[in-house]
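From the methods appendix. Each design record in this collection lists the tokenized structure first, followed by the designed amino acid sequence. Records were kept in a plain field format so they could be parsed without special tools. The example shown here is representative of the layout used throughout.

RECORD:
FOLD TOKENS (644 positions):
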């Protein structure tokens, strides 16, 4: 304690000084007799509360107290007087200007030489500000408690250093436990309830929150004590105290999200079934399509009059459209199920965009739209799947032609900067309203206006553009000044640094197709087999058909075909099994075997490679592609045989 220096001013602290200090602190000072009754006037009290002298002397200070506080204040005052002990209480008293103010009353008994109470000395301090804060805090706490109760939330506080945890009652109930609020708990009491499969993740989240001072957030499964039921919980917490740079306390909540999780799981299941249904639907539709397409080709070769020819051309056109829709549907459902794997290679985007423009040129000519390309003089290399990127560009160009009217014009430009290729497809067509600019990339999304609707379609194209672009590490966005103002689609794709392009090896180019070679078609669908054989015969092949794997094997033994076109989905012995058996025979080692099938998934292709197929073509096969593949494989086979 500070020692006062002799003769220092403190030593001359007199009774008047004490009075001055007291008056500056206290709002009122007053005295009462040994029984606690007010007997002398207190101008400071009257100034403080606005009571009149009569009120003060007749009724005493209690009459100035707030009615809600009066009973308790009187009780405490009487207790203090009876037991001759000091008093220190808070209550509200009237304000001279109206309303209420918080006061802190302190009173102490003064004892005479005989030890009896002579009188009481009292003072009042103003504590309105502190009490206001306390009340607000209590109200806030009450509101929080109501919210926590209503939401059935468990709350927890974890003293990290001591590993002591405190839970509220609800927290115990969430784990199916008897509440033991006073019980000392540890982090393990929480962790032992977390499902084994989620435990490491929850621990990692807690550790991260402690180390990086970020909120702890986790959704996890928990096993209840009472019935061992697995429930879903969400935990959230924050560091609430630190010492010497170490997190020492974390507080948070935990609540049951089982119902939401179950709804999510059910929704995902419905979504999965929808995807499966779409995949199956488009797969099933392929089989009849194959017959139609082959039939049309066959008819086209014999048709002589103009009407038949143009009808066939129209039907062919519509068949192609149907096939495209089915392909898009199948692609979207495969992407949704994560079943599309990109076959990435280093490729030149400039050349690819040129090819895409060539592919859509007939459509532009047919609809009378203009297409202007601005391509860079040099190649732009990127790592990508050529087929898929072609799909991205043709989809945008096709939309450009479809969503412009007479005098429609589409401008395509390709540039690159900062290791990014930027493809712009701009048109002067019907435009897109601002609120639709993001939505049009959603699955099955079509803008609801008659011009757009008149174009048909299923709302798949832009979904494919977006997802395929993203699978290439890129992004796509749409811009438009509004309806009737045209639209611009911008695709950004990461590029590779330029390298001298590898020159294609032209040495091994296919020679003339080898005519009059023996082909065996094995397909349980007799009609499809006949159509295919008719088309191949027209190209000069000697074609035989069989309708089961076993019959095909027997026939091949004697026919010794150069190539076998083999369906996969056949009863009894499927195409995989048939191919495996073919490869086991001495004559089957070098024969060309091509799968011609409705099964087009990556998994199907993998299985056909394993079974020994040389190629896997998906129905409905384009005739030109089938012939090219056949010629190519037969030539390779012949070259290999000559080399031996
Ligand atoms: P679809 O064209 O089959 O309906 P998309 O996914 O390709 O499906 O397009 C979704 C919607 O976006 C279209 O229905 C159309 O309303 C709008 N849209 C697409 N491209 C354009 C464009 N170039 N101009 C204006 N609107 C377009």
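DESIGN:
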């Amino acid at each position: 304690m500070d020692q006062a220096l002799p003769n220092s001013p403190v030593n001359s602290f007199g009774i008047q000084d004490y009075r001055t200090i007291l008056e500056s602190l206290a709002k009122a000072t007053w005295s009462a007799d040994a029984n606690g009754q007010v007997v002398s006037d207190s101008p400071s009290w009257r100034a403080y509360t606005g009571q009149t002298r009569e009120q003060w002397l007749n009724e005493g200070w209690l009459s100035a107290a707030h009615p809600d506080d009066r009973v308790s204040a009187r009780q405490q005052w009487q207790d203090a007087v009876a037991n001759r002990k000091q008093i220190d209480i808070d209550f509200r008293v009237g304000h001279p200007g109206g309303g209420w103010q918080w006061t802190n009353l302190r009173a102490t008994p003064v004892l005479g030489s005989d030890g009896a109470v002579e009188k009481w000395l009292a003072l009042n301090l103003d504590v309105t500000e502190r009490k206001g804060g306390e009340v607000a805090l209590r109200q806030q706490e009450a509101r929080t408690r109501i919210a926590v109760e209503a939401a059935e939330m468990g709350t927890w506080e974890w003293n990290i250093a001591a590993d002591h945890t405190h839970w509220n009652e609800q927290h115990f109930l969430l784990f199916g436990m008897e509440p033991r609020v006073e019980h000392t708990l540890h982090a393990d009491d929480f962790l032992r309830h977390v499902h084994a499969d989620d435990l490491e993740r929850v621990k990692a989240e807690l550790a991260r929150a402690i180390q990086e001072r970020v909120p702890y957030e986790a959704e996890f499964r928990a096993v209840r004590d009472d019935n061992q039921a697995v429930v879903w919980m969400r935990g959230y917490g924050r560091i609430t105290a630190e010492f010497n740079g170490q997190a020492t306390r974390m507080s948070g909540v935990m609540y049951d999200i089982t119902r939401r999780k179950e709804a999510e799981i059910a929704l995902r299941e419905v979504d999965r079934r929808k995807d499966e249904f779409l995949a199956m639907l488009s797969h099933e539709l392929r089989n009849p399509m194959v017959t139609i397409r082959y039939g049309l080709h066959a008819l086209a070769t014999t048709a002589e009059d103009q009407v038949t020819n143009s009808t066939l051309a129209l039907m062919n056109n519509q068949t192609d459209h149907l096939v495209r829709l089915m392909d898009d549907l199948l692609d979207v459902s495969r992407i949704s199920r994560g079943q599309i794997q990109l076959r990435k290679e280093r490729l030149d985007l400039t050349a690819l965009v040129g090819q895409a423009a060539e592919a859509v040129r007939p459509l532009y000519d047919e609809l009378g739209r203009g297409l202007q390309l601005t391509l860079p003089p040099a190649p732009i290399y990127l790592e990508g799947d050529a087929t898929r990127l072609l799909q991205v560009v043709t989809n945008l160009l096709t939309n450009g032609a479809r969503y412009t009217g007479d005098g429609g014009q589409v401008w395509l430009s390709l540039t690159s900067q900062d290791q990014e290729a930027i493809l712009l497809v701009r048109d002067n067509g019907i435009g897109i309203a601002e609120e639709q600019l993001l939505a049009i990339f959603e699955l099955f999304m079509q803008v609801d206006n008659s011009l757009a609707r008149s174009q048909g379609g299923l709302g798949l194209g832009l979904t494919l553009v977006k997802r395929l672009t993203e699978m290439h590490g890129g992004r796509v966005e749409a811009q438009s000044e509004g309806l009737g103002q045209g639209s611009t689609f911008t695709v950004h794709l990461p590029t590779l640094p330029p390298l001298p392009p590898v020159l294609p090896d032209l040495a091994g180019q296919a020679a003339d197709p080898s005519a009059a070679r023996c082909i065996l078609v094995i397909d349980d669908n007799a009609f499809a087999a006949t159509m295919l054989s008719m088309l191949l015969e027209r190209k000069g092949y000697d074609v035989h058909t069989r309708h089961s794997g076993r019959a095909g094997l027997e026939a091949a033994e004697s026919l010794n075909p150069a190539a076998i076109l083999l369906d996969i989905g056949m009863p009894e012995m499927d195409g995989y099994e048939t191919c495996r058996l073919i490869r086991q025979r001495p004559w089957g080692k070098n024969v060309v075997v091509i799968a011609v099938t409705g099964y087009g998934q990556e998994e199907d292709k993998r299985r056909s490679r394993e079974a020994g197929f040389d190629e896997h073509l998906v129905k409905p096969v384009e005739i030109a592609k089938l012939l090219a593949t056949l010629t190519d494989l037969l030539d390779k086979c012949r070259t290999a045989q000559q080399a031996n």
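APPENDIX NOTE: Confidence is low (pLDDT under 50) at residues 1-9, 500-516.
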